[in-house]
Design a protein that fits this description.
- By secondary structure, the protein is mostly beta strands.
- It is built from one helix and eight strands, in the order αββββββββ.
- The chain has a single domain, classed as Sandwich (Jelly Rolls), CATH 2.60.120.
- It has a four-stranded antiparallel sheet, covered by helices on one side. A two-stranded antiparallel ribbon has the order 1-8. It has a two-stranded antiparallel ribbon with strand order 3-6.
- A hairpin with a 4-residue loop joins strand 4 and strand 5.
- It starts with a helix and ends with a strand.
C-alpha cells in the first residue's frame, strides 16, 4: 500500500505528468497535505515563476511540526525525504514580498 502513496506524491510533483499548478498570491502560503505510512520515500519536483524582488520558500513538516526539508528562494528543484512513522505530512510554499515592492502572483507547479 505504501507504493500507492508514493505514486500519488510523485504524480503531484513529477515533471511531465499531470501535476498540480496554482497561482500563489503575494505574502501568502499554500500547503499540500497527505497521510503516509512509515518508511515511504517521498520525492518531488517543483518550479516557480521568477519575479524580481519576490521570493518563494518551501518547508516540509509532519503533524508535530518537525521540519523534514526546507529551502529559501526557490525557483526550480527537487526534494526527497523518508517518512519515519505513519503521519500527515505537508509541503508548504510561502511567498515573501517586501512591503515597498509592487507584487504579483507567482505560478507554482
Amino acid at each position: 500500500m505504501e507504493v500507492y502513496y508514493l505514486i500519488f506524491i510523485l504524480s503531484v510533483f513529477w515533471h511531465g505528468t499531470d501535476g498540480i499548478m496554482w497561482s500563489l498570491a503575494p505574502n501568502t502560503q499554500k500547503c499540500l497535505k497527505e497521510e503516509l505510512h512509515a518508511n515511504v520515500l517521498v520525492a518531488g519536483e517543483y518550479e516557480v515563476t521568477e519575479v524580481v524582488g519576490q521570493r518563494v520558500d518551501y518547508i516540509i513538516r509532519d503533524s508535530k511540526g518537525h521540519i523534514l526539508s526546507q529551502k529559501d528562494s526557490i525557483t526550480k528543484g527537487k526534494f526527497t525525504f523518508v517518512t519515519e512513522t505513519y503521519d500527515t505530512f505537508e509541503v508548504c510554499f510561502i511567498s515573501k514580498v517586501p512591503p515597498e515592492r509592487r507584487s504579483v502572483s507567482q505560478d507554482v507547479e
